[in-house]
Amino acid sequence: MSNTSHDPLPIDQTPVGELLGEELEARNWSQADFAAIIGRPTQFVSEIVTGKKEITRESAAQIGAALSHSAEYWLKLQDQYLLAEQAKSSVTQNKLSEVRRRARLNKLAPIQLLRKRKILTGSSLDELEAEIMELFDLDSIEGRPQFVGAAAAKRSNHGDDMSMLQQAWVACVRKQARKRPPTGMYSPEGLVRVAESLSRSVHRAEDFAKLPDQFSDVGVRLVYVESLPGAKIDGCAMFVDGHPVIGLSGRGKRLDKVLFTLLHEIAHILRGHVDADRLIVEDLDDGHTQESVREIEVNDDAVDWIFPTGYPSVPARISAPWVDQTASELGLSRIVLIGQLQKRGRLDWRTTLAKNAPSVSEVLPLWT
Questions:
Q1: DSSP run (H or E) holding 245
Q2: What's the sign of the alpha-carbon dihedral 272, 274, 278, 279?
């Protein structure tokens, strides 16, 4: 063995202890001699030579200093042998294969979060893999989720692919939609009637409980899937097995925000923006000032359904009595009127008029 630190490593996979023993023999040093040189017990050297002890960074530096090698040289010799042995081990390779499978699953979906929410229930890796393939309609976990290549439009990042969290959320909406298809055939006319009456039929958070059946009667599946942290999704619209589906995340919580998201997604369906090959996934509170023509159209549709006779005349100073009277005259929940005034910049988002606004966060999970 050469005494330079730049020599290539031996190509044969020999235990590093044997190589050290050969080096000592070439120098006519006993293990006791070498132990004295590096300041270690003789047993320490013996255990390295016989393969009972691995070389550490500290001992590699001591061995290298005694033999005019670098510490890295001895560590690499050891790693080269150990990695070669690991590659021969079927047990180790099987474990590494499982690591790769788990890594692939976690690239597709937030596995631990979905397990916590009982969306995934498998206890074994095989069961989890089967559930993920079913969730994403995949023949293999190496496949690509079907809707990733669809024309997915998100106001938060126009034209970008959906993130892993967004893909997982949409897949959960689709899975939930398949559990109970709508009872009626899809009726665009019926959906228009629902949209026109929605703002005047939903005044309390409890009123959201009846909506899935109401939508089901006109052939639309309404689904709630709690927002995944970081997904930034308020709602989606798509077709699942031939019928339209609207998914809500409840991220806005406030009655008027979730209601507006629902109206917004209805407009996408009625305007034909979604079909078997296209879906809409949206963050309606992304703060972007510029919107596409399509987004402006569906927002206008939603506002028209809220104010079918036109936007009310708003006084310079908006008071609580005016809000109460106007909301009553229009047949709206006061928070819906307040929310629209906030959207138009007539009321600050911190206005006390919105204090104690009803939240739908406890009602939406009751949807099945």
A1: strand 243-248
A2: positive
